[in-house]
Each structure stands twice: as structure tokens, then as C-alpha cells.
Write a structure and sequence with these properties.
It contains twelve helices and 13 strands. The strands form three sheets. A six-stranded antiparallel β-sheet has the order 3-2-1-6-5-4, with helices on both faces. The structure holds adenosine-5'-triphosphate (ATP) and magnesium ion.
Length: 412
């Protein structure tokens, strides 16, 4: 009775450890499986434990624990005895492998398990989801000692937990992929709105380069040729081509579908790059851009492209809001600073019509838009990006006129 109570307490401790592993990294399966396997093996005093997941080609070994010099095959065919145990959907307990029928019949993998692996007692428990076997939890002993009913029950519980963990990571991954796909589509749409400006941004350095080329030709065909001046013109050409390449690189960076990459960033750099991209758009709409970027801000950790995406959305929203103004100044203010307890603060303010009570309440909702061709996804994506960076994004009215969007990102 006393030992059973002790076992129950240990079991509960193990479950909370698993739950912690799930909470800590809901998208990362490995630590969860490792935690579950460690607990299962330890609590039922087995020497070795393993997880195999069902794939089309067979059962793939995804986690192992314990001490053994034997290295089991990474992939086991569905026709192997382990594969057949899994297909049977029920726990299989073999108290003595050496007297089992499969061993006597000379099943190659069973012979291997006993003669090379040195195992005597085995327990396998399938993981089942929606009536379908998705994997198998295996524990084994090198000594001849049957598992107790309590131990079998324990391993069955752990296999069920592992099935839940698998499902959680699968959903989390799907959700992330959907979100990333959506963000990418929104980015393409946002940049699509800038095409005219981007073309302009490219045309400038390219025409300057062409002019530089003409000039250098003239210097060279002079009699006598002026090599020094020609050289200067060629340098001018090169610099302008580099500028055009920078623009292309920046656009390419935003358009490419990349996995997120966290790095240490100076938020001011990120902002300056986006302002360069949106400059012509502002000009076209008679908008003056004023920046006040605080020097020596603490660095943040973030994904450059995602943060540029946020800035781009806020800037385009502001320009679009002001483009409808019949009169009055059209000013876009961008500034950065610090909020003591929160990190770096970025503010984007316009002198547009501002936010109505309804808009103020709903603007971060997906698909909320007041624009004839809007998707209404811009701000909801911005918010999820900022929150994924550990910060917050909010909007307020700005007196006497306009809207103010601010976000924070923790300093590193
Ligand atoms: N600076 C602003 N001034 C006034 N209203 C704004 C401003 N920014 C956003 N809004 C309001 O919030 C709504 C939602 O903005 P959001 O960026 O999410 O979508 P959208 O701009 O309408 O479409 P898109 O998906 O193309 O970005 C806008 O339709 C607009 O009504
Ligand atoms: Mg928008």
C-alpha cells in the first residue's frame, strides 16, 4: 500500500513535468517526448525506453533513453514484430522474450532484440489518435522481471500523454504555418501598393548611372583623354548601381518567404530602411515625413523582415489615411525612444482624420477595414508580430488631429 502511494505521487510528479515541457515549448516535440520517455522508463524501472512514430515506410525511432550498447534500427518495417504489435492497438507485455513464440520461430528482429540487445522483458504500448495508431512507446528490461499491472497502466498513461503532446505540436505547427503564410501574403500585398514608388526608387540611381556612363565616355574620347575624370565618372556609375542593388535586396528580403530569424537589431536601422522604401509613396501623396530617432537605443532581439513589415503597414496606413484629406498639412512623424520598464518604444503618428469610436475599438480585428480595397489584415498581423517579439502595439487618437500608433519591444 505504501509503495503504491509512493508510486502514485511519483506518477503525478512525472505528469506535471510533462505538462511543463508542453507549456515551455508547445511547438517542439522532442523535449516533450524525451521527458515522457524518461519518466516512463524511470518509474517502471526499465533499463531502456524508446518512442517510434508511424510513417509510411515504417516506424521511426524518435527518442531513446537508458543505457544500452545496442543500437536499434532507426526505421522498423511495419511487418516487423514491433510493427505488428503497434497495429494490434493494444499493449503487449512479454514477460520472457526468450520463451516467446516469435523467438522460438526465429523471427530475425526478435532474435536480434534478445541475443544482441540482451533484453528479456518487454512492454509496448501503442499511441492511438482517432482510432489510428500514430506511434509506439516501448520499455524493456535486460533482467527477467515481468512488469506489474500498475507499471503497465503507468506506461499506458504515458503513451496517451505522448499522443496528446503530438497533437498539440501538430496544431501549433499548423497554426504557425497558417499565420506565416498570411503574413507573407499581406507583405506581398503591402509591397504591391508600393510598386510605383519602388520603380521610382530604382529609376533614380539607374538614370544617374546611365548619365555617369555617358560622362565617362566623353572624358575618354577627348583628345587627349582625361583619364582621371573618366575614372571619377565610373566610380559614380558603380555607386549608383550599388544603390539600385540595395533597393532590390531590400525588396527581395521582404518578398522572400523566409523562416523567421531572430537577431540583435538596432530598431533605428530597421526604420530607416523602411522609410527609404516608402519615401516616394509619401512624396506622391504630398506627405512630409519627419523622424526623430533617439541615438544609442538599447538593442532588441527580433526578426528584421517582420519588424520592417510592421513599420511598412503602419506607414502605409498613415499615408492612406492622409491621402483623403481635402486640406490641412499631411505629416507623418516617426520617433523612437525608451519606456523604462518595457524597452524600446516606436511611435508612428499622422495628421489624418484620426480614429472613430468604432474604428478605435475594432482596428486590430482581422478583416476589419473601412477601405474599399482593404483586406483588413494589416494591423492584426502587426499585433501578432509584435506580441511574438514580447512587446505590445496599441493605437490612440492624437489631439488635435490624427492617429498615433505605438509599439514596444523589450531591450536585450
Ligand atoms: N493611421 C490611421 N488613421 C486612420 N484610420 C486608420 C489608420 N490605420 C488604420 N486605420 C483604420 O483601421 C482599419 C484597419 O487597418 P488595417 O491595416 O488592419 O487594414 P486595412 O489597411 O484596411 O487593409 P490592409 O489589409 O490592406 O492593411 C483601416 O481600414 C482603417 O479604417
Ligand atoms: Mg493596412
Amino acid at each position: 500500500m505504501r509503495t503504491e502511494l509512493g508510486e502514485v505521487i511519483q506518477h503525478r510528479a512525472a505528469i506535471s513535468e510533462v505538462l511543463r515541457a508542453i507549456a515551455n515549448s508547445p511547438h517542439d516535440l522532442q523535449p516533450m517526448l524525451d521527458t515522457i520517455l524518461d519518466s516512463a522508463t524511470r518509474l517502471c524501472r526499465a533499463e531502456v525506453g524508446g518512442f517510434r512514430l508511424c510513417e509510411q515506410e515504417g516506424l521511426r525511432l524518435v527518442a531513446v533513453t537508458g543505457h544500452t550498447s545496442w543500437s536499434p534500427p532507426k526505421l522498423l518495417e511495419h511487418s516487423s514484430y514491433i510493427g505488428q504489435f503497434a497495429a494490434g492497438r493494444l499493449p503487449v507485455h512479454i514477460p520472457d522474450l526468450a520463451t516467446h513464440e516469435l523467438y522460438r520461430r526465429g523471427d530475425p528482429y526478435m532474435l536480434n532484440t534478445v541475443n544482441v540487445g540482451g533484453f528479456r522483458t518487454l512492454l509496448t504500448v501503442p499511441m492511438v489518435k482517432d482510432e489510428e495508431v500514430i506511434g509506439l512507446l516501448i520499455v524493456a528490461r535486460t533482467r527477467l522481471q515481468p512488469f506489474t499491472d500498475f507499471e503497465i497502466e503507468l506506461v499506458t498513461d504515458f503513451a496517451a500523454e505522448a499522443a496528446i503532446a503530438l497533437e498539440i505540436t501538430r496544431r501549433e505547427r499548423q497554426y504557425r504555418e497558417a499565420q506565416m503564410g498570411l503574413a507573407h501574403a499581406n507583405r506581398l500585398a503591402t509591397i504591391g501598393q508600393l510598386t510605383a514608388s519602388v520603380a521610382h526608387e530604382l529609376k533614380q540611381p539607374l538614370s544617374a548611372a546611365a548619365m555617369g556612363g555617358d560622362a565617362s565616355l566623353r572624358w575618354l574620347t577627348r583628345d587627349p583623354p582625361d583619364i582621371e575624370e573618366a575614372q571619377r565618372s565610373v566610380e559614380h556609375v558603380i555607386n549608383n548601381i550599388k544603390r539600385a542593388c540595395d533597393v532590390i535586396d531590400r525588396i527581395h528580403g521582404l518578398v522572400r518567404k523566409n523562416a523567421p530569424r531572430m537577431e540583435r537589431l538596432d530598431i533605428n536601422d530597421v526604420i530607416i530602411e523602411v522609410i527609404t522604401l516608402s519615401q516616394s509613396e509619401a512624396l506622391k501623396n504630398d506627405v512630409t515625413v519627419r523622424t526623430q530617432l533617439t541615438d544609442h537605443l538599447p538593442r532588441i532581439r527580433g526578426d528584421r523582415v517582420q519588424l520592417q513589415h510592421v513599420m511598412l503597414n503602419l506607414i502605409i496606413n498613415a499615408i492612406q489615411a492622409m491621402s483623403g484629406l481635402a486640406d490641412g498639412k499631411r505629416e507623418l512623424h516617426i520617433n523612437t525612444g525608451i519606456i523604462e520598464s518595457e524597452g524600446v518604444r516606436i511611435a508612428v503618428r499622422d495628421s489624418g482624420p484620426g480614429l472613430s469610436a468604432e474604428t478605435l475599438q475594432r482596428l486590430f480585428e482581422p478583416f476589419y477595414t473601412t477601405k474599399p480595397h482593404g483586406m483588413g489584415m494589416g494591423l492584426s498581423i502587426c499585433r501578432s508580430i509584435i506580441e511574438a517579439h514580447g512587446g505590445r502595439l496599441w493605437a490612440t487618437r492624437y489631439a488635435p488631429q490624427g492617429a498615433l500608433f505605438q509599439f514596444t519591444i523589450p531591450a536585450t
